[in-house]
Amino acid sequence: MAHGYLSIYLNTDRRNAIIKDIGERVAKSWELTEGTVLKDSLPESTTFSLSQDSGDILCDFIPNISSVLVISSRAREVLEAQGLRQEMEYLPITVLDRRGRPTKSRYYLANVLRKVACMDREKSEFVPGSDEEILVVERLKLQEELIPPETRLFRLGECPEVIIIRSDLLQHIQAENLTGLVVREQGEDIY
Predict the structure, then answer these.
(1) What is the 3-state secondary structure (H, E, C) of 71-119?
(2) 155: three-class secondary structure by DSSP
(3) What is the pTM of this model?
(4) What is the longest distance spanned by two Cα atoms in the chain?
(5) What is the pLDDT of residues 47-70, one digit of tens each?
(6) Cα(181)–Cα(153) distance, rounded to whole angstroms?
(7) Which 3-state string (H, E, C) describes 36-57?
């Protein structure tokens, strides 16, 4: 069965609560989007705050401007039940409400470790950096034949802050009524 691949996008629904301070709370915040192991550098006492200017709906996938997957316990259970245990880290964090108190639900930073270099440079739009580096992907097209068949959630090898999800995993997440995950089709604006 053929599957499609979509990029995970910042949820811009103003009704949803948004985490505002990931970059301020993590010393080497750039590591959060690199796909490197973080378990020894992100203590369990790490807290993130909800923005005063955002909505009040706490989703299973909490939006943030840092391209980081912050997920609920329920989302973690669903992802793990789908076989996403290896090549992932689920790092416990505390989300503080607008009053600075811990939320009742447990949340995790879901660190996607797998990277797959599969961008179609000729059909994608991006801002190049030095050498082969890509600073920002604006529109993405993939060379799907380069993606290993078992891979359902991964970082784009050429620009690891971009997270790709396979359509069957997305459908399962939607069937479980998990909230907050927004995706873009290939060729659509990512940011």
Answers:
(1) EEHHHHHHHHHCCCCCCEEEEEEEEECCCCCECCCCEEEEEECCEECCE
(2) strand
(3) 0.91
(4) 48
(5) 899 988 888 899 999 988 788 899
(6) 13
(7) CCCCCCCCCCCEEEECCCCCCE
